[in-house]
Every structure is written in C-alpha cells, then in structure tokens.
C-alpha cells in the first residue's frame, strides 16, 4: 500500500507538474540550498537540474553519482554547484547573475517536479547623510536640508523615518540615488534606511547638524522680529509720553494766562 501511494503521488507529479513556484532570496556571496522535497522513489531516479532552460547538473540516483555541466550557462556556475543525497542543489558563493528559475526534473517526467525562483541581492551599503548645500543656500539660516545617498545598489527602497513613522520613500532601480529631507529643526528621532526584502541598513541623523526644537533656542529671524517689535513699542510709548508732556505744558500755560487775565484785565495792555 505504501509503495502504491508513492507511485501514485510520483505519477501525479509527472502528469500535472509542480503546483507553485517557490521564491528564494539570498545575499550575494552566501550559499543557498534548493530542496525539491523529493520522495524516496524520486531520489532513486535520475534527477536533472536546469537553470531557466539550461541543464546544469544531474544525479544518477542509486549510484549517488553527480555530473555538473561546467561549460553551460556561459560557465557562470563553474566549481560552485553541489548535489546532496536528497537531490537538493547547493550553490556556493552566489552572484547576482545567479538569479533566475531553477527547475528539477525526473527521468520519467516531462514537467518539473519543482520550480524555484531565486533572487540574489547585492550587499547593502550603509546610507550616507550629508547637508544639502543647494537647498541650504536658498533657505533660512534656521532650517536644515539633508541628503541621504546610497551607491552600488539596485532594486532597493530608500526611506526617511521620523521615529518609527515612515515620512517618504523611493524605489532605487539604478546604482546611485539620493533622497532629500528638509527640516526647520529637529524635534524627534530621524533616520535614513535602505532595504531590500531580506536586509536593511540604517543611518541616524546627527542632531549636531541642525538645532533641536526642544533645546529652547530661537532662530535669528525670530529674534530680529521680536527685537524690532519691541523697539517699535518703545518708540511708540516714548512718542506718546512726549506728546502728552507737551500737551500738559500747553494746558498749564493756557490756564495760567486765563487766571492772570481774570485777575488783572489790563495786564496785556500794560505789557
């Protein structure tokens, strides 16, 4: 009964093929093992591995002998392939050019027993944060503009974060990109992150590069505005008191003249 079940499942795989593609991701330079999960009966058969449509390796089952086609696929896999007893394909020292589909076949099947979609990602460089001089020259002295840059990467995301909140992000498809950030001051924890599906690199913004909003400091523009307003107020108060003093003096003179005139109506005639 057990043998019958194995034969039945093996024949179904040969007729209908694999149900889905298994996605595998790895960083360049690491080793990766593609395990097709073969049954014992399948492992006893001749097993063939193909990279896209190119044959790269074969194992002869019970004889435990393996053959590698070193010259296939432009020789890119030379001395980097292994097959273990389970029929798994091991690729050492992976390269970006290893990305693609890997299919495993048995001798008696025309459809693949398993399909692997392998993606090899380049090492992520640490993002670099610098002052954006082109923006700072046209901005107020209290504001800060920064550039976060990455080089020698592709198919990654470059993002600015404030604390744990994403501010904005771009997809980097070429080898060198920058993402700018404009701040009036630093009031939280800022960082720049570059990431791919399996890894990320983070650089935190140095608070010495821009004044903090919580340190009690006030921008020169604000200080000038406050000082100008204060001087205007002082000037207005001074003018008011001078005007009031002159008005009071005039009123006193007029009052004194009226008193003298009342007391001696001929005073002005005498003088």
From TrEMBL:
Annotated signal peptide: 1-17
Coiled coil: none
Domain Ig-like: 127-206
Family matches, as InterPro entries: Ig-like_dom (IPR007110), Ig-like_dom_sf (IPR036179), Ig-like_fold (IPR013783), Ig_sub (IPR003599)
Transmembrane regions: 222-243
Protein name, entry field: Hepatocyte cell adhesion molecule-like isoform X1
Keyword Hydrolase attached: no
Domain of life: Eukaryota
Taxonomy of the source species: Eukaryota, Metazoa, Chordata, Craniata, Vertebrata
Transmembrane helix found in the keyword field: yes
Source species of the chain: Carassius auratus
UniProt keyword list: Membrane, Signal, Transmembrane, Transmembrane helix
